[in-house]
């Protein structure tokens, strides 16, 4: 006998309904949160905007910090192929973007910057902003064509089609640009700034067909008292939530990546130098 078991008491009707409504657990999602002091980050953003005239947001800071963290911990820059981990050679950053109602039906889409780890903060912010504006205003022909084609797939076939697409994209590693599909459209890490929706925190669901193993959800920056020395002072805090694939990234590695991102946001000048020079 491998382990001793004995029958449990007969379940209640509610428990029987619950057992019938769900399949056995198969979701590898794991979650972690970090509280980040944001006073220096907000001051950095303001000084950067004033000095360069370039748009910079907390989302840009999180994206760059995430790219740097995955470069420092390359074992977390991973995806699943043939049911085993494969390491990516560069870091792509994907940001979820809301397409507003006045340009059509409200929808979510993605803006992805490849090789984000090789870009400076200024370069990444510029590239990401250009991508965000294109997809937000529905000017990206590849994404819009893909959405139109996806809308033709019957609902009962969508799961099968997405699994097949993921298999061709990532398991077979086939570039589908010849049929109008983007290359590696979701990158290494996906970021959804739920703070822009007025939320302090959210736990993102993994999207299996994207093969993304690490998701970040920066929340709204809020005013809270914090302890400095023996004094209680006003502070600016942000909850940074991550979802990670526990098959590929263990809790120790996830904590290192998350702490690196948090430390960078709490002292951006040490990570990236002074804000951009005055125009």
Short characterization:
With 279 residues, the chain is α+β, with helices and mostly antiparallel strands. The chain has one domain: Chloramphenicol Acetyltransferase. The chain has eight helices and nine strands.
Structure description:
This protein has 279 residues and is of the alpha+beta class. It has a single domain (28-141, 182-272), classed as Chloramphenicol Acetyltransferase (2-Layer Sandwich). It is 37% helix and 22% strand. The chain has eight helices and nine strands. The strands form two sheets. Strands 1, 4, 5, 6, 7, 8 and 9 form a seven-stranded mixed beta sheet that branches. Strands 2-3 form a two-stranded antiparallel ribbon. β2 and β3 form a beta hairpin. α3 packs across α4 and α3 crosses α7. The longest helix is centred in the middle third of the chain and has 17 residues, at 155-171. The radius of gyration is 21 Å and the shape is globular. The model has no long low-confidence stretch (mean pLDDT 89).
DSSP E strands, number: 9
Any guess at the CATH architecture?
Answer: 2-Layer Sandwich
Please mark out the parts with pLDDT under 50 across 5 or more consecutive residues, or reply none. Answer: none
Distance between the termini: 76 Å
Strand percentage: 15-25%
Number of domains: 1
Helix-strand layout with pairing:
Blueprint: H1 13-21, E1 29-37, H2 39-52, H3 58-72, E2 78-81, E3 84-87, E4 93-99, E5 107-113, H4 121-136, H5 141-150, H6 155-171, E6 189-191, E7 214-218, E8 222-228, E9 231-245, H7 251-266, H8 268-272
Parallel strand pairs: 4-6, 6-7
Antiparallel strand pairs: 1-9, 2-3, 4-5, 7-9, 8-9
Helix pairs in contact: 3-4, 3-7
């Amino acid at each position: 006998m491998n382990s001793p078991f004995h029958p449990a008491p007969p379940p209640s009707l509610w428990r029987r309904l619950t057992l019938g409504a769900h399949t056995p657990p198969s979701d590898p999602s794991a979650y972690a949160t970090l509280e980040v002091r944001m006073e220096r980050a907000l001051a950095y953003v303001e000084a950067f905007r004033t000095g360069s005239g370039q748009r910079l947001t907390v989302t840009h800071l999180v994206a760059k910090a995430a790219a740097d963290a995955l470069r420092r911990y390359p074992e977390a820059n991973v995806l699943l192929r043939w049911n085993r981990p494969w390491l990516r050679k560069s870091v792509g950053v994907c940001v979820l973007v809301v397409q507003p109602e006045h340009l059509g039906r409200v929808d979510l889409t993605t803006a992805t910057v490849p090789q984000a780890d090789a870009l400076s903060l200024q370069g990444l912010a510029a590239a990401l902003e250009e991508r965000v504006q294109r997809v937000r205003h529905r000017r990206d022909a590849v994404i819009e064509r893909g959405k139109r084609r996806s809308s033709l797939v019957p609902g009962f076939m969508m799961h099968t089609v997405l699994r097949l697409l993921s298999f061709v994209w990532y398991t077979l590693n086939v570039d589908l640009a010849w049929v109008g599909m983007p290359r590696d459209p979701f990158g290494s890490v996906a970021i959804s700034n739920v703070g822009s929706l007025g939320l302090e925190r959210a736990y993102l669901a993994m999207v299996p067909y994207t093969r993304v193993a690490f998701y970040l959800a920066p929340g709204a920056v809020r005013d809270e008292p914090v302890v400095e020395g023996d004094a209680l002072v006003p502070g600016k805090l942000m909850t940074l939530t991550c979802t990670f694939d526990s098959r590929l990234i263990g809790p120790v590695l996830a904590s290192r990546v998350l702490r690196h991102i948090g430390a960078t946001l709490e002292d951006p000048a040490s990570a990236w130098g002074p804000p951009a020079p005055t125009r």
